[in-house]
Amino acid sequence: xxxxxxxxxxxxxxxxxxxxxxxxxxxxxxxxxxxxxxxxxxxxxxxxxxxxxxxxxxxxxxxxxxxxxxxxxxxxxxxxxxxxxxxxxxxxxxxxxxxxxxxxxxxxxxxxxxxxxxxxxxxxxxxxxxxxxxxxxxxxxxxxxxxxxxxxxxxxxxxxxxxxxxxxxxxxxxxxxxxxxxxxxxxxxxxxxxxxxxxxxxxxxxxxxxxxxxxxxxxxxxxxxxxxxxxxxxxxxxxxxxxxxxxxxxxxxxxxxxxxxxxxxxxxxxxxxxxxxxxxxxxxxxxxxxxxxxxxxxxxxxxxxxxxxxxxxxxxxxxxxxxxxxxxxxxxxxxxxxxxxxxxxxxxxxxxxxxx
Length: 356
Ligand code: COI
What we know:
It is an enzyme of class 2 (transferase). One of its GO terms (biological process) is L-valine biosynthetic process. Acts on leucine, isoleucine and valine. Belongs to the class-IV pyridoxal-phosphate-dependent aminotransferase family. This protein is of the alpha+beta class. It folds into two domains: about 10-170, D-amino Acid Aminotransferase, Chain A, domain 1, CATH 3.30.470.10; about 180-345, D-amino Acid Aminotransferase, Chain A, domain 2, CATH 3.20.10.10. About 25% of the residues lie in helices and about 25% in strands. It contains seven helices and 18 strands. The protein has helices at about 65-70, 90-105, 115-125, 200-215, 260-270, 285-290, 330-340; strands at about 10, 35-45, 45, 50-55, 70-75, 75-80, 85-90, 140-145, 160-170, 175-180, 220, 240-245, 245-250, 275-280, 295-300, 305-315, 320, 355. Strands 1, 2, 3, 4, 5, 6, 7, 8, 9 and 18 form a ten-stranded mixed sheet that branches. Strands 10, 11, 12, 13, 14, 15, 16 and 17 form an eight-stranded mixed sheet that branches. Strand 2 (about 35-45) and strand 3 form a beta hairpin. The longest helix is centred in the middle third of the chain and has 16 residues, at about 200-215. The protein is globular, with a radius of gyration of 21 Å. The site of 2-OXO-4-methylpentanoic acid has 7 residues, from loops.
C-alpha cells in the first residue's frame, strides 16, 4: 500500500531487561511480555510519530470508545529463531493485509505498511534474546488497534492507537483437545464481522465456550448461524477434517477468519500431494464418517494453536471418539513441514519466511 508516511521511528530502550526473571520452560500463553512495545497514535486525521518504548502500563480516559463499543482489532503472529540465531517472521504480509481489512470493517483507519514493518522488525530485533531457538519455541507478536477518543457517543472514534506487544510462547493448548459442536450459540452471521479479527468476536465466544469447558471440552466448533448444519471454525483456530485420505476445510466467507496457518496448510497439502478439498462440510457428514470409521482426523490450525489434533467431539449429547492421536498422520506431517519452514530447517519454496 503506498502512503505519505515517511519513517521516523523513535526508540527509547528499556534501562534494564526482565529476561532473567522469566522461566522459559514454564510459560503460560500470553502472560509474560518482553522489554519493549510499539505504539503509534492516529490524531487529527493522521498517524503520528511511531515509537518503541519500554513495555509499561498506560492510562486512558474511562470514556475511551474502545471500552464502550469495542472498536478494537488485533493480529496474532510469531517470530522464530534458528540454531544460528537468525530470526524469522512467517508471512507477515498476510497479517498486515488482514489487520487493515479488519480496520476497514470496524471503521478504523488503515495502518501504513512501512510503519508496520519497520515497527515490527525493530521491536523484534530489540527483544531478540526473547526469541528462543528450538521447535516449539516462538515469540508471539500481538499487533492491535483501539479507539481512544474520550467520548461515549456511539460513533467511530476520531483517534486511535496502534500497538505491538510481544510474548514468549510455547503451545497454546496443553494436552489434548476435545471439542463441542455448537448448536445453540453462533459465532458470526452473514454480513457481520466474523472474517475480521475483531476483539468482540472473541468476547462473544467466552460464555458458550465456558459452558463447553464445564462439560470437559476445550473449544467449540462453530456451525453456520442460519441452520447449524455446516462446520465453520473453532474461534481460536480454523478446522480441518480428514475423511479417508482427503483433507477438508471450510471455505472462507464473511463469517470465517482467513487464517494464515489455514491457507499455509492448504498450500502445503497441495505441495505434498495430500488430497485437499476446500468446501462446505456438514456436521452430518463427519458424524456419519465417524460412525462408519472413515473419519481419520480432525485438527485445529492457528498461529497460537499451531496444529492441535482433536481427540473427539460432542454433537447433540453424543460423544464421538477419533482414532488415537498417534495415528493422526496428516496433522503431524503438516505440522512438521510448517514448523520446519518457520524455524529455517527446510526449503521455503513459497517464500514465507521473512528475516528480521
Ligand atoms: C492466534 O492464533 O494468533 C489468535 O489470535 C487466537 C487467539 C485466541 C490466541
